[in-house]
Design goal:
- The complex is a heterodimer of chains A (172) and B (325).
- Chain A has two domains: 76 residues, Ubiquitin-like (UB roll) (Roll); 71 residues, DNA polymerase, domain 1 (Orthogonal Bundle), CATH 1.10.150.
- Chain A is α+β, with helices and mostly antiparallel strands.
- Chain A has five helices and six strands.
- A five-stranded mixed β-sheet of chain A has the order 3-2-6-4-5, sandwiched between helices.
- The radius of gyration of chain A is 17 Å and the shape is elongated.
- In chain A, a hairpin with a 2-residue loop joins strand 2 and strand 3.
- By secondary structure, chain B is an alpha+beta fold.
- Among the domains of chain B are: 119 residues, Uridine Diphospho-n-acetylenolpyruvylglucosamine Reductase, domain 3; 103 residues, CO dehydrogenase flavoprotein, C-terminal domain (Enolase-like, domain 1).
- Chain B is globular and about 60 Å long.
- In chain B, helix 4 runs antiparallel to helix 8 and helix 10 packs antiparallel against helix 11.
- In chain B, strand 10 and strand 11 form a beta hairpin.
- The chains are: A alpha+beta (172), B alpha+beta (325).
- The interface between A and B is medium-sized, with 32 and 29 residues.
């Protein structure tokens, strides 16, 4: 049995491949830890109740709402935020597809949308349009860019199928 | 959220001595954390169950399906045996919430989900929270009960439990006195003046497993339908779970459960008796739909639930009849 808190406690988090040391209270959500303690403001605070999807991040590759996740429970897990998606300064193919399809207006929900799409394609590399719509249903876009978002995800899936080589371990 | 002590444990057995009114278990957190943020509950200690990995499993055995309490709704939705042999449960899991929430939410926690009534969730000291008055009764009650079971008119919000009742599932619960087995149908109860809660779990008890018995009938089919005010990610306006043995157009051993019309998912026993062993004609289907809401008395803003329930029951029966093979 391991007990922490209610005062701050020191934990190590694996965020985008880097080990990060933070001192947090057990009540600290993963979202607040990312934004306030680590300065990673890509994940957005909107409803704070698991209704909107703007705070979506990946934990061990699975899309979760970071506003309903306690940071203290993420020790030993692999956390991926939007800041960890691009490689060597170039956009991830999904991000590129969002740009190409104008899949955003204000952009506030976009980090969550892209990560939800990433988790969807990891699990289902060649989704149908209906599967994309369902897979993206946990992320609201108040600008109503849904059409572009669905097209962006479908395009990224097609490009992924073209670029990934058989046996590379990547989905195709 | 008020400060709390966070406790990690390695197995479910360690939890019981720790539990009391101020020390609560934490599974997926998708309901507990919003309740804490809203100040509806304020535990002093939270016990994280998620490191007790022995509670996340789906086991197919001779006597049916054994589901560990920490199994996520996503696990249930995707499991091939659940989809094939316990279809209503897979459908109900898939229709619940959003992909992210289904990745997080556990079946144990889902069964214990608190009502979504806006007065309960809002800044009202309503009857269910220990007050004197159900504000929804004469207030905004679009999403509330059409069958009165208690002074509270909130409806039970979760999807999978209606399917579990239709599938005659039981819960394994551990507590200070050891283990007990209770059917989901008996476990979910309308609140009373003494117990302002929609279930019969004691403060120092824990659900550890859901057992869905295997039907003896190879022709057993099941279905879960959910009416929402948008195509996805909404609570049920009305839901219907049906299990039956299907042969041509005849249904036997029918169980019809209607959700989101009362404090608990309700068996529509009169409708079941009407169609049991009969050739399922359109007229009989309509009659069964009417029987399912015969005892209903809508509130000011939810009269639409009457035709919705009638038609959803009818749709479920038609779909099951059509699934005969």
């Amino acid at each position: 049995m391991i007990e922490h808190g209610p005062q701050k406690t020191a934990i190590m988090l694996d965020v985008n491949g880097l080990t990060q040391y933070v001192e947090i209270e057990p009540r600290r959500t993963l979202l607040d830890t990312l934004r306030i303690d680590l300065g990673l403001t890509g994940a957005k605070l909107v409803c704070n109740m698991g209704n909107c999807g703007a705070c979506t991040v990946l934990v061990d590759g699975v899309a979760v709402y970071s506003c309903l996740t306690l940071a203290i429970e993420c020790e030993g897990k692999r956390i991926t935020t939007i800041e960890g998606l691009s490689e060597e300064g170039s956009l991830h193919p999904l991000q590129q597809a969002f740009v190409q399809h104008d899949a955003l207006q204000c952009g506030f929900c976009t980090p969550g949308q892209v990560l939800a799409a990433h988790a969807l394609l990891e699990r289902n590399p060649q989704p149908t349009e209906a599967e994309v719509v369902e897979g993206m249903s946990g992320n609201l876009c108040r600008c109503g860019a849904y059409r572009g978002i669905v097209e962006a995800v479908l395009t990224a899936a097609k490009e992924q199928a073209v670029t990934s080589k058989p046996g590379s371990g990547k989905t195709a | 959220m008020q400060p709390f002590i966070h406790i990690d444990i390695a197995s479910a057995e360690e939890v019981i001595p720790l539990l009391d009114a101020r020390t609560r278990p934490l599974a997926g957190g998708t309901d507990m954390l919003p309740l804490m943020k809203e100040g509806i509950v304020a535990p002093e200690r939270l016990i994280n169950l998620k490191r007790a990995t022995n509670l996340r499993y789906i086991r197919v055995a001779d006597d049916g399906l054994h589901i560990g309490a920490l199994t996520t709704l996503d696990d249930l939705e995707r499991h091939p045996d659940v989809r094939r042999d316990y279809t209503a449960l897979a459908q109900a899991s898939a229709l619940a919430a959003s992909p992210q929430l289904r990745n997080m939410a556990t079946i144990g926690g889902n069964i214990l989900q608190q009502v979504r009534c806006w007065y309960y969730r809002g800044d009202f000291h309503c009857w269910l929270k220990g007050g004197d008055l159900c504000h929804a009764r004469d207030g905004r009650n679009e999403y509330h009960a059409i069958v009165e079971q208690s002074p509270c008119v909130a409806v039970y919000p979760s999807d999978p439990p209606a399917a579990l009742i239709a599938l005659d599932a039981r819960l394994r619960i551990i507590g200070p006195q050891g283990e007990r087995l209770v059917s989901v149908a008996e476990f979910l109860q309308p609140p009373t003046a003494q117990r302002r809660s929609l279930h019969g779990l004691g403060p120092n008890e824990l659900i550890i497993e859901v057992h869905v018995p295997k039907s003896a009938a190879p022709a057993q089919r099941s279905i879960y339908l959910k009416a929402m005010d948008r195509a996805t990610w909404a609570y049920a306006l009305v839901s219907v779970a049906v299990t039956a043995e299907v042969a041509a157009d005849v249904l036997r051993n029918v169980r019809i459960v209607v959700g989101a019309v009362a404090n608990t998912p309700m068996r529509a026993t009169t409708a079941e008796a009407l169609i049991e062993g009969q050739s399922l004609t359109e007229e009989l289907i309509r009659e069964a739909g009417r029987a399912a809401v015969a005892d209903a008395a809508p509130l000011e803003h939810n009269g639409y639930k009457l035709p919705l329930t009638r038609n959803l029951v009818g749709q479920a029966l038609r779909d099951l009849r059509g699934s005969s093979s």
